[in-house]
Amino acid sequence: MKNNKLRSMIVIGMLSSISFVLMLLNFPLPALPPFLKVDFSDVPALIAAITMGPVAGILVALFKNVLYWIFSGSPTGVPVGEMANFATSILFMLPVYAIYRKISSSKGLLIGLVAGVLAMTIGMSVLNYFVFLPMYTYFLNAPALTGSAMRDTIVLGILPFNLIKGILLSAVVFMLFKTMKTWLDKQRVQFS
What is the extent of the structural domain holding 170? Predict the structure, then answer.
């Protein structure tokens, strides 16, 4: 039991480190707001969730964001972007985990990825509208976005960004899954 707990902690630490490095390799998408950047740091978090459970995936997502904030800082002094990234990770990861747990096949993963992309896209649009964009404007002492400016930012920026990011993440996860399925299944058994 102790050995399995130690092994889990080590794997979570390693996946968090990989996730942090992948988060550093972010890039903006053309024609979308430059503060929105795509990275593939949710892949290790999803691997942790699939192999060790949702708590492990959430921990990887948390640690990568804490490390990113420590090493990169935040323009507001408050880790608003990191909190948004953490929420994005959870919204993407949990539906994939829940569906893949019930249907452990390529089909189950694909259904989970579609559900994860939809949850992330819709969830982050709502959270940005009510939480993250108001936090940014407050901490930057900028005029608050209201009415059509807020709606345009969500509909023309946040929503398409999360949809594109989700599709790119899903493509990477699905390609990795094809080559790693046997290993992932073995890890799931060992961590159960």
Answer: 2-191
Residue tagged 């608003």 (tokens): 80
| β-bridge mates for residue 28, sequence order | 37
pLDDT, tens only, 91-135: 999 999 999 999 989 999 999 999 999 999 999 999 999 999 898
**What CATH number is attached to the domain comprising 150?**
1.10.1760.20
pLDDT score at 146: 76
Element (DSSP H or E) covering residue 38: strand 37-38
What's the pTM value of the predicted model, to 2 decimals? 0.92
Q: What is the DSSP string of 57-80?
A: HHHHHHHHHHHHHHHH--TTSS-H
Dihedral sign for Cα 124, 128, 139, 40, please.
positive
Record the tokens describing residue 126, joined without a space: 């709502």
- Total domains present in the chain: 1
Enumerate residues 6+ apart whose C-beta is below 8 A from 190.
4
Residue 77 has a CB neighbour count (10 Å cut-off) of 9
- Cβ-contact 171, 116 below 8 angstroms: no
Mean pLDDT of the chain: 92
